Amino acid sequence: MKKDFYITTPIYYPSAKPHMGHAYSSIVADFFARFKRIQGYDVFFLTGTDEHGQKIQRAAEKRGMDPKSFCDEISKTFFDLSKTLNLSNNDFIRTTEKRHEKSVQYLWNILEKKNEIYLSKYSGWYSVSDEAFYSDDEIELVNDKKVSKTSGSIVEWVEEESFFFKLSKWQEPLLKFYKENPNFILPESRRNEVINFVKSGLKDLSVSRKSFSWGIKVPSNKEHVIYVWLDALTNYLSALNFPDTNNKLYKSFWPATIHLIGKDILRFHAIYWPAFLLAAEIKPPKRVYGHGWILSGEEKMSKSKGNILDPIEIINKYGLDPLRYYLIKEVSFGNDGNISQDKLENCINSDLANNYGNLCQRVISFLEKNLEMKVPNNFEFNIDDKKILDTFNKDFNKLVDSIDSQDINYYVNFIQEQLFASNKYFNDQEPWKKKENKKRLNTILYVSLELIRKISVMLYPIIPNSSLKVLKAFNISEESIDINSIKLHENLKINQKLNKISILFKKIEKND
User: Fold this and answer.
1) How far is CA 209 from CA 52, 66, 87, in A?
2) Which three-class secondary structure string do you get for 13-38?
3) pTM of whole model > 0.90?
4) Which of 62, 378, 383, 508 has fewest C-beta within 10 Å?
5) Which stretches within 254-382 are classed as H helix?
6) Is 394 a member of any domain?
7) How is residue 374 annotated by DSSP?
8) Inside any domain, residue 7
9) pLDDT single digits (tens) 86-117
10) Domain range spanning residue 359?
11) How far is CA 364 from the centre of its chain?
């Protein structure tokens, strides 16, 4: 019986075109989704766009467009990016869809019936850019303007009639939930941050707005639109056809396995979202992982700062798989990371062109010259052969655990170590000197081919296009990739003819 795995990206706010931070979240989520699929899991991978709120309404007005037409245009750039990044997502949800509106209003009605929502008046600091409310101690004066200490976004004083969610009531239940589910928030630094915030005291949360109209209407009061975060967070349910809790999608995949988000939206996902769900008697997700930012220099990328890195430009210049590999390998997952042209080029030349591409070319070219591209049929492993092959089997459980705990760094470091060891093995064994000893020559080639196969299977979630070129040379289709096969030592079919491969990665000429 297949196990289920449900992973989500944040749904992106389409007030401007996508940047590298959006690409990073999506690529990492795709990495996990692809890994769990080749582990035999039934995977549901969701991404999409969050299209309501005052920020969108103002951006549309600035362009002289109605909000829906504006969203149609900008959301398409995010949809197109999901294709450009070669994401394996099962669904792309938009909060302007009818299925989503139905889910949001249903959840609102549950909360209202359970007396978790009441009508009052809101007065306080609000950031249109963040669509977030801030207390006095969370803002500061910069250049005569009040801004959020965390995001730097300008805040406005707002006073209006509003519906409130009884968030204060859920302070202790949330702390109890965090204690009983210690891995609900990762990494640990984010967990501590959330717990400290909740312990400092929760105030009831304004969950509707009356001052603008672009949003989902409150079912019981059409003068109000539902607060964009209560609206947006519900996408994780509406993609599973909630409120129909008996349908196959919902029954298979809720609660979500992991919400993968940027650290700047941690509070919404780790405090507000579980509080809404607990109040509605719906199980919260199993995990929220708040990763770091992709920085431009030392700053977070934002349209207002004009420091946006365009992933499309980098892909057009260097290719998609090099960008995917660089972001997954070079950014220590959970921490902030930086992207620079120099580091990217070094990564392509060293890891991809030299260590991986060159190994594949050398071994398969040698096979073509000496064994007519056929898998060797007469071999015998010695201690060195068994030792290098057995590394994958010996560390297999650690590798799976690293993925389940979102320790990408361990997984990538293991691949790097095996690439280095495989290149060293081929060099040290000197098959070109063993042509008189047919059995030894065959063994070296068989071991080298198996190492390439194992490494290519492991690289598939990171660089699917490039690794597939190699796996197809072994007559392995995408549908038949199985991570468990890296534990096997004799997986290749004797005498099977392999296919040639073209150059996987071109080295980049660097001017010293």
Assistant:
1) 12, 19, 35
2) CCCCCCCHHHHHHHHHHHHHHHHHHH
3) yes
4) 383
5) 266-267, 273-279, 311-318, 320-330, 341-347, 359-371
6) yes
7) B
8) no
9) 999 999 999 999 999 999 999 999 999 999 99
10) 341-487
11) 34
